[in-house]
Amino acid sequence: SAVVGYEYQLYEGADRLLDWTSAGIAMPVVAGFDGSAEAPVEPSAQELATGASASFSVGGLQHGHTYAVAVRAVNAGGASGAAWGIATPGRILAPDRLQAVAGDGWVALEWSAAASEGPVIARYEWRGRPVWGAWSEWESVAGGVAARRQMVEGLANGLEYVFAVRAANPAGAGVVAQVAARPEVVEPVPAENTPL
User: Looking at residues 4-23, what average pLDDT do you find?
Assistant: First the structure.
């Protein structure tokens, strides 16, 4: 019998906070198939079983608390067994002590690790813009969660830029830290005994 919906339970530790409740979704979504008449091939039951995905949100949770969620499928004959997941909602805070060191056509961004109120940090991202211009797209910093530095090259000397850095994971991104810098040619300082 076809799946007609999904239900979930919510736990914090051993405490059940929510009994079986409708997730508000009817059928999973299969990559490459939207159910329209224009779809070239309707997926088979096996494709639905192995390639389907669905999602829903659970609100009203507390930052930094760990929750367990059980999810089951429902059809005309009843409910399936439950699949379980664990998550800790909360904010990812801004990278600490973001600073910019400017040189001839470049800026080096450096920061300390971002703190988190629960979510695991997976990577850092950065973007920049001229002070009166549009932001570039967010780009991941090489090095993943251990990254603490990003070189930005090809900049115009004498023009002020603003840069933003944030921590992120597959679920989303955290609070943004910003810093401004102006690339310029730095003249060498003459030694004390060098004639002028």
Answer: 89
